[in-house]
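pasting for the record
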Amino acid sequence: MASLALTERSTPTAKAKGVVTLARARDGAVVCERCTVAHTTLARMRGLLGRRTLPQGEGMLIRPAPSVMTFFMRFPIDVVFLNRDGDVLKVCEDVRPWRAAAARRAHSTLELPAGEARRRGVAVGDRLVTHDPSHEE
């Protein structure tokens, strides 16, 4: 698995915009290579609707969003709930279409392909940070 050298360019998930890479703060392990940040009302409402799949390595960080609904989706997803600092509060694996999931005190959610959270070793207590690849030297 890939890892990043986390630097001053690493920021909390609460400030992310655009397409970023998400990594675990303690070891730099990449959790999502191409994570689209949905921080506007329209982007949050649309979410993953209309997609047929979510390829491995891709995801969506929705903020603010203490809950998600998978109504009208075509595939299951893993949902990772984060607080404002990017700490993982809860991981819901394999959430099927037409379901809802929530976590108390969550500020944002990370939606990943089903099985990806386990494959990447995402666990409650991990801190995720963003790394904007467009700011590389």
